[in-house]
Amino acid sequence: MEDPQDVVLVADVGKSRCRVELRRGSELLGAADQHGFPGVHVDNGPTLAFDLLLETVALLPPGLPLTTVTGIGAAVAGVEASAQKSQELATMLSLRFGVPAAVLSDATAAQLGALQGAPGTTLIVGTGAVAFRFDELGVLHRADGWGPYLGDRGSGRWIGQQGLQAVLEAHDGGPATSLSVAAGALVESPEMLPGWLADQENPYRAMARFAPLVLQAAEAGDAVALNIVGEACRILTATVQRASGDDTSQRVALLGGVVGSDFFASLLRKSLASAGIEVVAPLGDGLDGAALAATRRGLIQERYIHRDGTNWPD
User: How confident is the model over 199-215, as pLDDT tens digits?
Assistant: First the structure.
């Protein structure tokens, strides 16, 4: 049974960032964050995630009531690729803290947080892009989220990559764009862009960091940037439609850094509305979803939550 005074440790252990929060009900007691990791599915993934989470916990402000933690919820990259390793991580966390532990994918956590456990569709647009829907029976329906090589179309990475490609096309004699000036902050000449990108530790994140400049150029009226942003909205609308399937409610909650742009979110809402899809305000984020998984059992998403396996009393 969930108690509003329960102290829970929640984490978002992603590929670009690891965030940890200590919460008492809806009260945030403390937070810390640092770099991310490749994913729990890789070789030695559970240990990498476990060590990173503990290192981030050690960065929490001193004096917090860590000894009174009653549950742990961790949204972790790579969960969908290995149930066995996700279960292993949950067991490691439970043994370390002596409390129930729940491990779930970052996308599942985002959907849980956005709709507070209810069925429905969530579109997450960050470096990647994925639409998640849980139906009334708790069955997952997803579209995209297939990574930078084969998917994530319309994402921050996709928008940034299209922008950089447009700069090179303009250099080759294609349509002129103000993005060429924006790219000047990265390299002296467009010819240097391929080498610059190859030298980046994470090329996909580097491309995603160019997305805000594409959005700014589009908002200022740059025709090339507007075409890129318009195409992203059309792609993402199609992604939501595929995930929604036979869902007659046709509603979606939007999450992710890219939809934090009011300009982009407005265009995306219009695109979704033209397809008969209503945008609803998210009730929370991935950390809220991780907290929900830590404090409540029997959720419709339960089959996608990896718990430590101990028969803890309610």
Answer: 998 898 899 999 999 99
pLDDT, one tens digit per residue, over 36-46 is 888 899 899 99
* The predicted structure's pLDDT at residue 199: 93
**7: nearest Cα among 297, 234, 294:** 294
Report yes or no: 131 and 243 within 8 Å, Cβ to Cβ.
yes
Position 17 scores a pLDDT of 85
The DSSP bridge partners found for residue 24 are 7, 27
Residues 134-146 pLDDT 10s = 988 888 899 998 8
Question: Pairing between strand 101-105 and 69-76?
Answer: parallel
Contact status, residue 163 vs residue 181, Cβ threshold 8 Å: no
Q: What is the 3-state secondary structure (H, E, C) of 250-289?
A: CEEEEECCHHHCHHHHHHHHHHHHHCCCEEECCCCCHHHH
Instruction: Residue 186: name the closest of 198, 170, 174, 175 by CA.
Output: 198
Which residues does 238 contact at the CB level (< 8 Å), separation at least 6? none
Measure the CA dihedral 213/217/223/226, to 10°. Answer: 60
Question: In Å, how far from its chain's centre is CA 118?
Answer: 19
- Cβ atoms within 10 A of the Cβ of 25, count? 14
Per-residue confidence at 150, pLDDT binned at 50, 70, 90?
very high
Q: Which of 31, 38, 30, 43 is nearest to 13 (CA)?
A: 38
